Amino acid sequence: MRNKKSLFWLLAMLLGLSLFVAACGGEESSGTDDEQEDTTDTEDSDETSSEGGTMVFAVDSEPEGLFNWAFYGIVTDADIISLFDEGLIEYDENLKPQPNLATWETEDNKTFTFKFEEGVKWHNGDELTVHDWVFALETIAHPDYDGPRYENVKTIEGAEAYRNGEADSISGIEVIDDYTIKITFDKARVNNLTNLWAYPMNRTAFEGIEVADMSGSDPVRKNPVGLGPYKVENIVPGESVELVPFEDYWNGEPKMDKIIVKVVDRSSVLGALEKGEIDFITVHPSMGQQVEELDTADLVTYPGLSYYYVGFKLGKFDNESLEIVEKYDKYADKRLRQAMYYAINREEWIDAFFSGFGKPVNRPVPTAHWIAADDSELNTYPYDPEKAKELLDEAGYKDVNDDGWREDPDGNEFVVKFSHYDVGDPQYESRAKALTQYWNDVGLQTELEMVEVNLYYDMLENDNPEIEVFYGGWGTGTDPDPSATWKSNALWNYTRYDNPESDQLLDDALDMDVVGTSDEKRKEIYVEWQKLVNEEVPMLYITELEETVAVSKRLKGMEFDVSGWNSPVHWYIEE
Amino acid sequence: MLKYTLRRILGMIPMLFLISVVVFTLALAMPGDPFSGEIDPNNTDPEYIEEMREKLGLNDPLHIQYARWISNFVQGDFGESTRYKMEVSDLIAERLPNTVLLGATSLVITYILAFAMGMYAGRKPYTLGDHFIGGFNYFGLAIPSYIAGVFAIYIFSFQLGWIPFQGSVDITVEKGTLEYWLSRLHHVITPAIVLGLLNIASYTQFLRNDIIENSRKDFVRTARAKGTPEGKIYNRHILRNSIIPLITFLGFDIVNLVNGAIITEAIFTYPGIGQLFLNSVMNQDYPVLMTLTMMFSFLVLVGNLIADILYGVVDPRIRLD
């Protein structure tokens, strides 16, 4: 009797479990049924209006949830914001500013008059006026503001005084009427406009919220209010965002029923693309080939704005006085650096480690930038080990003790110490090893050290003597000015390259007295500068990578240029 | 018993204090800080970084930083996450329900499967069924959860389409409805099984071995001699004794409920405590990192205590005084 009862319980438990599992399975399949119904619906409507459908926009890392231009910190968040909000200015394929929500006029590059588009609606129904922009500028200039954007406001006249609490408003901002505003900068610069913060913030949404609390507040994290073609309907923190069309969008009619942003782990990206579960994701170049082989998605590449380099520590920087206080001799000979450049087969290296989704670059400016010097004006340092050896011999780096390695001109042991950051990806070590191999091949003994990434940048920034030759990458912005990473007084000039001529050229290119308002003139100076650093090679410019994205075959209308993707209002789904 | 519990709880305080010192020192000994690492020069500038370091007190000496942190901490102010820019307590509250659901589902599945398989295998040892269960268990023990997770997604999601491959819920369903909860369950089931795989295996084998051992004991022979039905012998006399070692695990299981599962949550992009912890380490988000570590330590201590107390409850031979 007992026995049977216990057996009964056991069976009941098993049955319960299997029911549970089955219920889940059943629920799932009903879920897919729904989806299928949805898609057939779209197909039906396709025939009539070719509109509708749900796009799944995937990101491969978790958003921080700071969904406001003024507060976001990482690219993932910025990508999501770009789906539901837009700025006063947009950038074309040459990274030149173009009017979007506002047009501007200036005579001297010091005072700008902006005219806003009339009748533009926020997602909460408010009309966009210049006051929203003033609100954004004052928020960023507020002493309690904890985001990184003050850089884009501080050039406005009086911003500094406002931030220090000496003024109640920013004196350089003058509201003329609801749609017209005059901005005066502290001085005329060629890049005042591109540097200016061009994103208004909705005033009613932030009403009653102190600036110090804004970044964690609901209008940033839970119900952001934008100006874009889609508006945020729902956010599940850390995993998904649901966007629906905004009927009152000022510039066209959004064509899809929904955009769903999903976080997808890298290990699932290919499978999800193959199954058609996601319509868009940015992929790493090394995954490019696998994406190309899929039937359900296309790989799209567009020019990127970053370059990768091998730098030489040429000196030591003092963080307090912001100047280079000491110069190192080890890599001071230009011929040594050039020889190390000739020794690298960059094409082969890029093919091997970035599946060919990159190009050798010969200057610290990506080709897509309008200031980029043409390769015909530069030394392209083609792979030439013989030339490298010649240069080394000439500079006195010869093997004097017959150990197979070159000694320095004084006859002492010479070992190139190469450091590369380590994030746990085994590929990083092999690509670094490949570089050391090139140098070994021309007789330079090279040691590789992989350093944990946080420690690496810490050491790099503080000029730790352990770092001599290092691998790195820089992104360049919409404005081409490279001062932040190249001037001798810049903390991020990691090579500590100190050349008055280079500093002078970089200053000239920003100087209104020299270049006026002419882009041509400005470009000329930058080309001059690129020739200089191409000859001096304080760093070996290795490659510029293409941006690689996977787009599902059913998603149409999405276009890319160097400034990113076009407005989501043009995207549509075609089954 | 009450005295014992109180004594243990009091004993936790110095322990937690020591843990906090060690963890704080280790966390800050990590190279860099929340503002270092790969820098996008277009998105920040050195002045801002220096200003934020000053504002957050990262330039102060270690002992001052510690004193500031601990005095806020004991007053219930866990600080603000440098990465998410929100209160740590809010952040944890946001993620905790996901993790608890995952942990609880995993626990339920683990116990049901472990009991069912363990009892069967213990009762019929060295039969085909037992070997089958044994084989399954060793498979479960041997396979790391990140492999199991990736394969589960590949097979059940991409090939068969039974389960979603990411997230904790379908964002389009309305919150609070039955559909919403079914969607939650649907999302949690696979990570829960993957998470429970190791425990299922070890609990089953534990139970099986204990049942076999107990079934050879004198009291069982006596019971058999008296003519007690087999079912009663197994389910009453043996099982009661065999459950005791499993009880010790229960304390830790409670800890697991809240700790989250770093790897499983990452693979299924399931936003829970484990994922939060991993990110806080990677981004050196000290307030989150410290609060979570303290929470985990506290729970481990509590879990231990619960296990000890439960032990006394189920095993009359153990008296806690």
Automatic annotation (TrEMBL), chain A:
SUPFAM superfamilies of this UniProt entry?
Answer: Periplasmic binding protein-like II
Q: Where is the organism placed in the taxonomic lineage, from the top?
A: Bacteria, Bacillati, Bacillota, Bacilli, Bacillales
What GO biological process term is on the record, naming one? peptide transport
What is the designated name of this protein? Peptide/nickel transport system substrate-binding protein
What residue range is the signal peptide? 1-23
Provide the alphabetized UniProt keywords: Signal, Transport
Annotated region Disordered: the residues are 27-52
One GO cellular component term of this record is: ATP-binding cassette (ABC) transporter complex
Automatic annotation (TrEMBL), chain B:
Keywords from the UniProt entry: Cell membrane, Membrane, Transmembrane, Transmembrane helix, Transport
| A Gene Ontology cellular-component term | plasma membrane
Q: Which segments constitute the ABC transmembrane type-1 domain?
A: 96-307
Q: Where are the transmembrane segments?
A: 12-30, 100-120, 132-156, 188-207, 243-268, 288-314
Topology in the lipid bilayer: Multi-pass membrane protein
Q: Which CDD domains match?
A: TM_PBP2 (cd06261)
- A Pfam family cross-referenced in the UniProt record is BPD_transp_1
Instruction: Give the subcellular location.
Output: Cell membrane
Which GO BP terms sit in this record? transmembrane transport
Domain of life, per lineage: Bacteria
Q: Does the keyword Transmembrane helix apply?
A: yes
According to the UniProt entry, the coiled-coil residues are: none
Classify the main location.
membrane
Similarity field: Belongs to the binding-protein-dependent transport system permease family.
Q: What is this protein called?
A: Peptide/nickel transport system permease protein
